[in-house]
Amino acid sequence: MIKDPFIKKIDRGEGKELILFSKNELNYKFFKGLPPILDNQTHLRFHPTRSEWVGYSSTRQNRTFLPNSLDCPLCPMTNNKNPTDIPVDQYEVAIFTNRFSSLHLERSEFPSLEINTDRATGNCDVISYSSNHNDEFSKLPLERIELIIQALSFRTKELINNSKIKYILPFENKGKEIGVTLEHPHGQIYSFGHIPEIIKKQSIAQKINPLNKYLFDIPKELILKKNNTAISFVPRWARYPFEIWVVPYRKISHLFELSDEEQQDLAELILEASKKLDAIFNSPMPYTLAWQLSPKGYEKFHHLHICFQPIRRSKTKLKYLAGVEQIAGFFLVDLPPERSARILRGDEKPDE
Ligand SMILES: [Zn+2]
Q1: What band does 143 get if pLDDT is binned at 50, 70 and 90?
Q2: Neighbours of ion ligand 1 (CB under 5 A)
Q3: How would residue 306 be classed by pLDDT, with cut points 50, 70 and 90?
Q4: pTM score
Q5: N or C of the chain: less Cβ packing under 10 Å?
Q6: At what angle do helices 260-280 and 337-344 cross, to 10 degrees?
Q7: What CATH number does domain 6-344 carry, 3.30.420.40, 3.40.190.10, 3.30.428.10, 3.40.50.300?
């Protein structure tokens, strides 16, 4: 049995929230913290040939860019001189509304143009994995990964119950190579008022190709680890070098449906996968991490899966999304998934 976390919710005004999660009860000391940004003009414009929405958010240009630990907005506070986004003296895991949010639940302005425009409905949260600026995901204790999953479960359940939200994407951009603007270990939670086209396509595809069709048949050469309730593997259809999927065997569509055992098993495999990725080149692997939850209305087909999408293919080379990937969405992969799996398991050396 996993113990329920201690949860403390703080209203930071202007619709901004801070939620603190801890395994043990903490006695927080509160400070004032960074003020909200009020003039965040964001809206959606319709792309006529791709038939999808494009988001515009001009205040994002002024986001904090790679600050040192003294100016880091995710570090806890010790005095009122250096305000941060998490204005407490200590914490384990924190989720808060992004001050530079590109999506808003309350604001409704959008320009009137000759093309179709709309309000950018939704919400953007940040999840800080640790109060320690120099921590790394793959070096966190298993207990902390469990707490991160519990925090994501709690928050995504709360968000999906909001009638304005249609789809939630918890994700992480890791590494400067990916374009991270803060080094403090953290992820994000984007909640959309619409279902992005690619996500819709992914969910519809699962009607025809349910993940369960593959899950119990994954060949040994692609499996990284499995336990009672979940499996981690390099998919035969990987689009990125060293791509890893972590999937619970039971078809569920949201994190909050995980049983205690499934939650622990998933945490174990996720931590193990991140360790394997960092071990390949003996340095933190840059990747995007996607928590693939079901959009509203597709729960019947969607099978929860967690995907690591790394971009380092050799010690000196990165996988860039170039012409064919960006224009046609057609991925060309240099590293066969079968070889990725051998390297990840330590049976073969990666390229220099
Ligand atoms: Zn920090």
Answers
A1: very high
A2: 72, 74-75, 133, 184
A3: very high
A4: 0.95
A5: N
A6: 90
A7: 3.30.428.10
